[in-house]
Amino acid sequence: MNKKVFLFLTSFLLLIFLNSVSLIAQTSYSTSDSIVVFYPQTFDAKQHMPSFAIVHEPAVHAGIPEGWPLTPVFSEASGKSKATVHCGAADFYGTGEVTGTLKRNNTSITLWNSDNYGYDKYMGRQLYQSHPWVMGVRANGTAFGVIADNTWKMDLDITNTSIVFTSDGPAFRVLVFEAATPQKVLEKLAVLTGTIELPPIWSLGYQQCRYSYRNEEEVKSIADHFRTKQLPCDVIWMDIDYMDRYKVFTFSSAAFPDPIGLNNYLHAHQFKSVWMIDPGIKEESDYSIYDQGSAAAGTHWVQSGSGIPFVGKVWPGPCVFPDYTRPETRHWWAGLYTDFMATGIDGVWNDMNEPSVFSGGEEGTM
What we know:
The chain has helices at about 5-20, 45-50, 180-195, 215-230, 260-270, 290-295, 325-335, 335-340; strands at about 20-25, 25-30, 35-40, 60, 75, 80-85, 90-95, 105-110, 135, 145-150, 155-160, 160-165, 175-180, 205-210, 235-240, 270-275, 280, 310-315, 315-320, 345-350. By secondary structure, the chain is an alpha+beta fold. Strands 1-5-6-12-11-8 form a 6-stranded antiparallel beta sheet.
């Protein structure tokens, strides 16, 4: 090949590459000597903030600590946003609720919640939660963590030396942690993402839960058998069959006609009770919850792209879904628990919060 042809082909291939992949300049801010937040130049705060992951937004200072080892490279390709972190050799952990070994090297995961009964779809790599988080541990014991602060659907690809987040949405920020040990990395993660409330002592023992109990007599029978056989058990959970046709905040008049009496019975036998609530509200006139939510011009419901309530099929059939991003909706929803808990219920099981949709959504979710 002569020199002119070689130069032409090289220039042509480079032009194709630049048209398909564009590197994005970035700004970065150190929150301390061990956490740095990296922003792509095209970051649009309106698309991402407030963060759903970072509960305590860090105070930032300009600049990166001297000798900082990990810097993500932001790029765009085929309409997708990407962040690549070249880490060097490490053992990788994290990635949230998916099947597989504890070590996540050479793993690819799709971060997109899915109601995946029996884990039989997507090889168990799309389950009920999505966590864009990876922790790396080096051979010398030092550790680092990487968060892609993004709620859009993403692919997460991990090799033995790199982490790549590829998002369907706009450019997103990345937080990188450095620490002397994995334990210290997780402490830093907890500071930013928040820690759980101290649970009640009764929630830490053995709990009986299954799908599902057909009626209150069956629940009492289960409780009696535990006590007769002197098996320790602190809690019994009620699945969706206690409801009137799977409508939340209702009780079946045939199967669970006396929830106060059932809870009193369980308490008398030293059991606490947890009852399920789903976010799918049956689309049915004269159902009080649906009517209340619709009375506010329908704004309590998640809207579709065309500005009308999104409808997806769940246990009751066609359902609408509360928009918990709205303070007014959260306040209304919280008020629904007053009468519900007054029956003696000790805890609430929030289920189907992927949010699961049997039909009308993508890959089993809204």
